Amino acid sequence: MKLYIGIAKSEEWWNNEFTNNTWTSAVNSIENSIITEINQKYGSRTGFEGWYWPFEIYQNDQGYETYWASMLNSSISHITSISRS
């Protein structure tokens, strides 16, 4: 069995809070803490396969992809940095 672990989910996502930099910074901080802790405890286990980003993204004409990319890139950067250590 391969295990993917979801990181920080918030219903505030659906209120378009992802356009608020304070909110996204707080969520990224929580995500990064979760990622670090789980990686330290379980990252070397053979069943641990990776991470699941739970926020849904969708097509729109309001440029939301810029916000989503910023949030996702923050998580990816953190995962990459701890994977090398």
Please, could you describe this protein's structure?
This protein has helices at 21-42, 64-83; strands spanning 3-6, 48-52. By secondary structure, the protein is mainly alpha-helical. Helix 1 packs parallel to helix 2 (64-83). The two termini are 26 Å apart. The relative contact order is 0.22.
Q: What is the strand and helix layout of this fold?
A:
Elements: E1 3-6, H1 21-42, E2 48-52, H2 64-83
Parallel strand pairs: 1-2
Backbone CA Rg: 14 Å
Q: Strand-and-helix sequence, N→C?
A: EHEH
Strand order of the largest sheet: 1-2
User: Helicity, in percent?
Assistant: 40-55%
Amino-to-carboxy terminus distance = 26 Å
Largest sheet: 2 strands, parallel
Low-confidence stretches: none
Mean pLDDT: 87
Number of helices: 2
Gross morphology: elongated
Quantity of strands, as a count: 2
- Sheet/helix structural class: mainly alpha
| Beta-strand content | 5-15%
Could you name the key traits of this structure?
single chain, 85 residues, mainly alpha, two-stranded parallel ribbon, 2 helices, 49% helix, 11% strand
Q: Could you provide a short overview of the structure?
A:
The chain is mainly alpha-helical. It is built from two helices and two strands, in the order βαβα.
